[in-house]
Amino acid sequence: MIRPRLLPVVDIFPLIDCRAAHFRPAFAAFDFQVNVSMARVLELHEHGKEFVAVFDHHDDLVVLVEEGEGPELSFYQIKSSGELTWTAKRLARRSPKGELPKSIVGKAYYNVAQFGPEIRRASILSNRPLSATLAAAKNVGLHDGELSVADLCSADQEALMKSLEADFTGAFDKSHAHLLTFERVPFDLESYRATVIGKIVTMLENLDPEFAACSSPFYAALSPLRELAPATRRSRLRLKNSVRAWPSAVTISAR
Known about the structure:
The protein is globular and about 55 Å long. By secondary structure, the chain is an alpha+beta fold. α1 packs parallel to α5 (192-207). It is built from seven helices and ten strands. The strands form two sheets. An eight-stranded mixed beta sheet has the order 1-10-2-3-4-5-9-8, with helices on both faces. The chain has a two-stranded antiparallel ribbon with strand order 6-7. β6 and β7 form a beta hairpin. The model is unreliable at 6-16 and 225-255 (pLDDT under 50). It is 36% helix and 20% strand. The longest helix is centred in the first third of the chain and has 23 residues, at 24-46.
C-alpha cells in the first residue's frame, strides 16, 4: 500500500507582517493557490500515480509524474477570480508595467520557452470557467474541463497569439499551442479549505479508518502557510523568494 510521505517543511512564519489587514485579498489568493496545489497532488495520489510535486518554484505548482513511456512534467498557474468567467482576451491582457511576459497566458508559455516542448502542459487553473468558442462549435460556451489553446476557435486563438508574440518577440512558436491549457477546478472561494480537508479525510480513511483523526494535523503539515496573516508587498516577496530558495520545503512524494 502506497502511503504519503512529507518532506521537511521550512519555518517561514517570521517573514509575515500580521498587522496588514488591508493586504488580505493578496493573501487569500495565495492561500487558494496553496490549497488547490494540495488538492491536485492528492488527486494524483488517489489515482496511484508516482510523482513529485513542488509548490511555488518556477511556477505555482510543478508536477513530475511517472508514466508508462517516461516522466511527464506539468506546470500550473493558479488564479482565483471574483469575476464570473475568464475569456481569451482576459487571459491575453497585458499589464502596462513590469517585465516580460506581461500577460497571464504569456507567463504560462514562459515554461514552454524555458523547458522546451517536451513538457506535458503549461496550464492555468482557476475557480472560474473559460467562456470561449471551440474550433468545432458555432456558439460561445462555458468550459470546466481542461482545454488547450489549440482547441479554441480562430478568433480566440488570435487574441492569445497576438499577446504571446508581444511577450516573446521572435521566440513564440504557434505549434506549441496544444501545450497551453486552461482548466476550471471545483473549488469556490468560500469553502475551498473544507473541500481539501474532505479529500484528506477520504484518503486517510481509505488507508485505515482510524487515520481520519489525523486529517487536521495532516492538512497543517501539507500547508505551512495556512494560518498565516496577510503579508505586506515587501514581506510577501520575501516569503515567495524564501520558498523558492528551498524547493524541497513544500514538496510531497507519493512514495
